[in-house]
């Protein structure tokens, strides 16, 4: 599952899901401050990149990100996404040519509902990232107002670490920290309202920002508001007090932790290959999220 070789582009980095390329010699964009971001069909769970891919996942993530970039009223890094823009035909539909940013080492997370790592902290201290919350909240409870709960970026295979706002200030300065907080909560609020109008709850989301090297503007980068970076729930099924069905890789997580997989999360062994039915149900869930949110048919 190595990154594909693309004519005119030089592979420079691979994350859990995305492969990054810079223009090679002979490319019309050579020397420009741009990067090609290619979303693969790889899927990760429990900090492992799985051996089995999910067909069309990269296309869903890219097309949904592009749709959201168009909805949000914030500067973003996308310059083009078609073959006419310079995207190689081999990865058309799942790639974006983007402005290269100087990224902040912060995962910017907004939460409107209590679940996941936030719920675990709340049960211990009644806080999330040291922010006090009311008593009596359950798994899936809606918060009185969205909160900014950043984390420090970790290397591939490592856990991101929840940090306080004070730690963000210490890392990137008070002015930058305030801007990231404001931008993140603004994006969440707009996206939450949009998703709710389509019958989907946006429980939380992670966004990333960098500085445009030419203008100094703080700019939205990476992907945005996809099932890989956000928790989307079916509004009709929302019921606090239990885990909510989500539009993401929940089928994968559930199978890996079931006796059927035979996998021990505490061992050093990588997860086993996914069975065909788990792959198909996961693909269908990603496509359903895309179609419900955008109102478009996924082709």
Rounded radius of gyration (Å): 19 Å
What form results from the Cα inertia axes? Answer: globular
> Per DSSP, what share of the residues sits in E-state strands of 2 or more residues?
25-35%
Distance N terminus to C terminus? 24 Å
Mean pLDDT over all positions? 94
Number of helices: 6
User: Helices and strands: which structural class?
Assistant: alpha+beta
CATH superfamily descriptor of the largest domain: ATP-grasp fold, B domain
CATH topology of the largest domain: D-amino Acid Aminotransferase, Chain A, domain 1
Unreliably modeled segments: none
Quick one: how many beta strands? 17
Counting copies of identical and different chains, the oligomeric state is single chain
What can be said about this structure in brief?
This protein is 27% helix and 26% strand. It has 299 residues and is an alpha+beta fold.
């Amino acid at each position: 599952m190595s990154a594909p070789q693309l004519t005119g582009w030089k592979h420079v980095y691979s994350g859990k899901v995305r492969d990054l390329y810079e223009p090679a010699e002979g490319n019309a964009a050579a020397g420009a401050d741009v990067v090609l971001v290619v979303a693969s069909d790889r899927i990760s769970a429990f900090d492992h990149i799985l051996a089995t891919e999910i067909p069309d996942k990269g296309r869903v993530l890219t097309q949904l990100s592009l749709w959201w970039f168009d909805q949000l009223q914030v500067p973003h890094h996308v310059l083009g996404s078609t073959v006419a823009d310079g995207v190689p035909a081999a990865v058309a539909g799942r790639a974006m040519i983007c402005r290269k940013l100087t990224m902040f080492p912060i995962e910017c997370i907004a939460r409107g509902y209590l679940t996941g790592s936030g719920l675990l902290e709340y049960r211990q201290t009644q806080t999330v990232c040291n922010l006090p919350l009311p008593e009596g909240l359950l798994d899936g409870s809606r918060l009185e107002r969205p909160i900014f709960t950043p984390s420090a970026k970790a290397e591939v295979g490592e856990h991101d670490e929840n940090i306080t706002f004070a730690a963000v200030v210490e890392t990137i300065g008070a002015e930058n920290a305030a801007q990231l907080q404001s931008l993140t909560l603004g994006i969440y609020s707009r996206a939450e309202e949009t998703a709710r109008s389509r019958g989907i709850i946006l429980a939380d989301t992670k966004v990333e920002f960098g500085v445009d090297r030419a203008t100094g503007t703080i700019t939205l980068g990476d992907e945005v508001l996809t099932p890989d970076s956000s928790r989307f729930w079916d509004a009709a099924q929302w019921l606090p007090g239990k885990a909510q069905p989500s539009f993401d890789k929940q089928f994968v997580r559930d199978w890996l932790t079931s006796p059927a997989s035979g996998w021990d999360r505490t061992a050093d062994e990588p997860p086993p290959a996914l069975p065909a039915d788990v792959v198909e149900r996961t693909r269908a869930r990603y496509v359903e999220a895309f179609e419900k949110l955008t109102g478009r048919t996924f082709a």
